[in-house]
Amino acid sequence: MAVSAFDSRIFRNLFGTQEIRDVFTDEAYVRSLIEVEAALARAEAAAGVIPAEAGKAITDTFASLEIDYERLARDTDIVGYPVLPLVLQLVEGTPEETAKYIHWGATTQDIQDDASMLQIKRGVALVRRELETLKGVLKGLAVTHRDTPMAGRTHLQHALPNTFGYKCAVYLSSVIRHLERIGEIEQRCLLVQFGGAAGTIASLGEDDTGLRVRENLAAELGLKNPDITWHVARDNIAEILNFLALVGGTLGKIALDVMIMSSN
Description:
The chain is mainly alpha-helical. It has a single domain (17-261), classed as Fumarase/aspartase (Central domain) (Fumarase C, Chain A, domain 2, Up-down Bundle). It has helices at 18-23, 26-46, 52-63, 69-79, 83-92, 96-99, 108-144, 164-188, 209-221, 235-261, and strands spanning 149-154, 157-163. Strands 1-2 form a two-stranded antiparallel ribbon. A hairpin with a 2-residue loop joins strand 1 and strand 2. Helix 2 (26-46) packs across helix 7, helix 4 packs across helix 5 and helix 7 packs antiparallel against helix 8 (164-188). One of its GO terms (molecular function) is catalytic activity. It comes from Penicillium salamii.
């Protein structure tokens, strides 16, 4: 049963593509959770927190582990979030000598935030690709129609003439700024999360071990290493959403202009 246009088989492609939907399925989220748990084991092995061989063994085991999604759903109904039920399945499917190192020193929000960051990172990459394509199209139109005259409009009424190339160049300027914003988002907002239960990484001791693990984890996941944990600071998420709203506004403006310019 469709509850919105986004999961309607009839209307969903008006609001997205299968490629972007695949990034945010339940299965993709669970795979991202597992990817984070494996990366954490490798990061801790590299920092000497767990045995060196444990990181590889956990990664190899997770690569072929089958998740019982029906059980995961049932257990999540009880717990309220999927990480603990998932970790239980991961532990059960891993040899005992290495299973004890799964989720070492982490808290639920660490794993959930990192999994979400991986999904957002992949989604942002798709947006970047589409904007790069649009940039090329608009640049070509701006050059081709540099001298193609058309009616300018003021309050929807015909005004002084301009050129179609000029309008495309204005659209292009917005797209270029959006691509610049993506670069800033990738540096400022796509952050790794690893702080433990209270955000202080106290579970890994009083020295810099926790910081080294977080740095290793960031490298493993291709995320940025923040100056401090961001468990309760969500402005990076808000910035990404605001960026998407800006992109949507630009695309809507182009569509509205085409509709108006096509009218009698």
